[in-house]
TrEMBL record:
GO terms of biological process kind: methylglyoxal catabolic process to D-lactate via S-lactoyl-glutathione
Domain Metallo-beta-lactamase span(s) in chain numbering: 19-176
Subunit and interaction comment: Monomer.
The protein's name: Hydroxyacylglutathione hydrolase
Family annotation (Pfam families): HAGH_C, Lactamase_B
Length: 265
């Protein structure tokens, strides 16, 4: 007898390159993929699970997120959704804040588009309000955030704050498995934060079993991700004491952390 979950949508990670995740959403017959940096692992997963590709979703223009698109399009002529303000030639449906993607092949899954500039100028995130899923590419990571390639600290902090304002139980599907090294940095910033220590224990155990640390949740990120905690007095004080921060305000605090993280080993 079919169980109620038989028809439900599910999200699974397809590991790519060294530490990328291509997220696949499927309903057991149809699938869409988010940020297919390479085609091979996607094609083999589709084949193994007898799924037909329905659409491709892109968060930003970096090669490790779009590199597999051309090959996938050779196999299946599907729409490619992507950022309006990041130049990606294969995008057939350019998107920006306020747009909603509806996927008829996936039970009309609706994804709201959020502009989250900073890592790249046009970076977008996809938010499924009903399912409580967030696909955020290289903007927000487990306990970290993307490098600030094309934005200002103000922009980047505003983008992260937009994501942090989503409900606590929203699941965060980020584009890379960086959580453990990010947590090491987080512990440097907040040595007394027990939530960070506990997350590090749990995520280390996951990695030791070969499991992803993602998805996390917005609530967990707010409790453990230093880049979402740049407005806290104790975080600013710590950065100041360590000699990384001159002026105690959230934007400078965020910029100081981002700068320090770039060279942190
Ligand atoms: Zn990127």
């Amino acid at each position: 007898m079919p169980s109620p979950t038989d028809q439900a949508l599910s999200v699974t990670p397809i590991p790519a390159f060294r530490d990328n995740y291509i997220w696949m959403i499927d309903n057991r017959t149809r699938a869409v993929v988010v940020d297919p940096g390479e085609a091979g692992p996607v094609l083999s997963t589709l084949k193994k699970r007898s799924l037909k590709l329905s659409a491709i979703l892109l968060t930003h223009r970096h090669e490790d997120h779009i590199g597999g698109v051309a090959r996938l399009l050779q196999e299946a002529d599907v729409p490619v959704y992507g950022p309006r303000y990041d130049p990606v030639v294969s995008v057939t449906h350019p998107l920006q804040e306020g747009d909603i993607v509806t996927l008829p092949d996936l039970d009309n899954l609706a994804l709201s588009v959020l502009d989250v500039p900073g890592h790249t100028r046009g970076h977008i995130a996809y938010y499924a309000k009903k399912e409580k899923w967030l696909f955020c590419g290289d903007m927000l990571f487990g306990a970290g955030c993307g490098r600030m390639f094309e934005g200002t600290p103000e922009q980047m902090l505003a983008s992260l704050s937009k994501l942090a304002a989503l409900p606590d139980d929203v699941q965060v599907f980020a584009g890379h498995e960086y959580t453990l090294s990010n947590l090491k940095f987080a512990r440097e910033i907040e040595p007394g934060n027990e939530a960070i220590a506990e997350r590090a224990r749990q995520d280390l155990a996951r990695r030791n079993r070969g499991r992803p640390t993602l998805p996390s949740t917005i609530g967990l990120e707010k409790a453990t991700n230093p880049f979402l905690r740049a407005n806290r007095e104790d975080v600013m004080k710590r950065l100041e004491e360590l000699g990384h921060l001159k002026n105690r305000n959230p934007v400078d605090c965020f910029a100081a952390m981002r700068e320090w993280k770039n060279s942190y080993v």
